[in-house]
Amino acid sequence: MATMLGAVTSSHVPAIGGAIAKGMQQDPYFKPFFDGFPPVHAWLARAKPDVAVIFYNDHGLNFFLDKLPTFAVGAAPEYRNADEGWGIPTVRPFKGDPALSWHLIDALVADEFDITMCQEMLVDHALTLPMALLWPGGGEWPVRIVPIAMNHVQHPLPSLRRSWRLGQAVGRALEAWDEDARVVVLGTGGLSHQLDGRRAGFINKAFDAMCMDAIVDDPERLTRYSTHDLVREAGAQGTELMTWLAARGALTGRVSRIHSNYHIPISNTAAALMVLENHPQQAPQARAA
Ligand code: DHB
Ligand code: FE
Questions:
Q1: Is residue 284 predicted with pLDDT exceeding 70?
Q2: Is 285 a domain residue?
Q3: Residue 85 lies in a domain
Q4: In the chain, how many H helices and how many E strands?
Q5: Is this structure's pTM higher than 0.70?
Q6: Taking residues 155-176, what's their average pLDDT?
Q7: Ligand 2 centre from 126 Cα, in Å?
Q8: I need a surface site. Which of 15, 50, 63, 166 has the fewest CB within 10 A?
Q9: pLDDT tens digit string along 62-74?
Q10: Distance of CA 280 from the midpoint of ligand 2 (Å)
Q11: CA 178/CA 76 separation, integer angstroms
């Protein structure tokens, strides 16, 4: 039976890729951001995940305006990164877990989520940078991955409520996965930011603080925000909060906050990081009995 360990949620600002490549972790601009990660490394060293299910938003590398699925689940044996034109060095390929991908796809479709299934999928900075932050240092990635891409490019975007329910469906499917594997979920993006237009550079510290509290103890509170509410409160790209809520939805037990960090700004973004630990309430077999 799979063990759900918890969730790590992190910003994915492209500038982080350049900072990693140039070894600028101690640079005064980047230090308050990178200093958030050693406690995450310590938690991962204890949790020892085998696989990471990653809720992220593709920014036009794999999907573009011509074809844009609302939710897409990777089912590839390997996922490659490619040049996105931001100047981020590309990272080494990730190993997939096709058996888990197909288990999730079967469960999601049975649960009435009409997802797109992708046997080939390039992954962009929203997936590669959090992975590089969680497992720095090169070499083989220590986890297999299942990427779940959420539409954050073309409106209408999936609502927070739908994103939360997608995460819950993934959580139920993982609970029912008949494999002795240790699973972590990631949610990447956010928090408040707006990259263009009249409000470029917009950041809302009070709203971000509310989100970081609510995501622990009252995540359903966040599902009451419409996409338009969210754009107003968190900026046009603050809607990446959808990935955080999906990751939180996948935690089926009691949830505690192990660690968080928040720093303004990295590039245009209020960069935030959280580790949420999952404490299973009851073994699924016991519940079924
Ligand atoms: C920035 C933030 C993002 O989430 C992103 O995908 C691209 C750029 C930024 O703040 O520069
Ligand atoms: Fe982004």
A1: no
A2: no
A3: yes
A4: 11, 10
A5: yes
A6: 98
A7: 6
A8: 50
A9: 999 999 999 999 9
A10: 31
A11: 20
Predicted confidence (pLDDT) at residue 288 exceeds the cutoff of 80: no
CATH number at residue 175: 3.40.830.10
Looking at the predicted structure, is the pLDDT value of residue 170 above 90? yes
**244 closest CA partner among 266, 265, 264, 262:** 262
Question: Which positions are catalytic?
Answer: 125, 193
- Given a cut of 70, whether residue 286 has pLDDT beyond it is no
Instruction: Name the residue with the closest Cα to ligand 1, atom 3.
Output: 13
Cα 54 to Cα 131, 148, 243, distances in angstroms: 10, 6, 9
Does residue 286 belong to any structural domain of this protein? no
**Token pair of 182 as six digits:** 């240790």
CA-based diameter of the chain, in Å? 57
Task: Report in angstroms the alpha-carbon separations of 240 from 44, 77, 153.
Answer: 24, 27, 10
Decide if 130 is inside a domain.
yes
Nearest CA owner, ligand 1 atom 8: 13
Residue nearest to atom 2 of ligand 1 (CA): 13
Q: Give the domain range for residue 189.
A: 3-279
With a cut of 90, say whether residue 87 has pLDDT above it: no
The answer to whether the peptide bond before residue 28 is cis (omega within 30 degrees of 0) is no
Contact predicate 101/146, CB 8 Å: yes
Q: Does any ligand 1 atom lie closer than 6 A to the CB of residue 269? A: yes
Count of domains in the chain? 1
| Residue 1, SS3 per DSSP | coil
Q: Which amino acid is at 195?
A: L
CA distance 273 to 40: 9
Does the pLDDT at position 9 exceed 60? yes
CA of 180 to the centre of ligand 1 (A): 36
Question: With bands split at pLDDT 50, 70 and 90, how would you rate the model's confidence at 283?
Answer: low
Which one, of 242, 233, 80, lies nearest residue 160 by Cα? 242
Inter-residue contact 232 to 277 (CB < 8 Å): no
pLDDT, position 147: 98
| Helix (H) / strand (E) containing 116 | strand 116-118
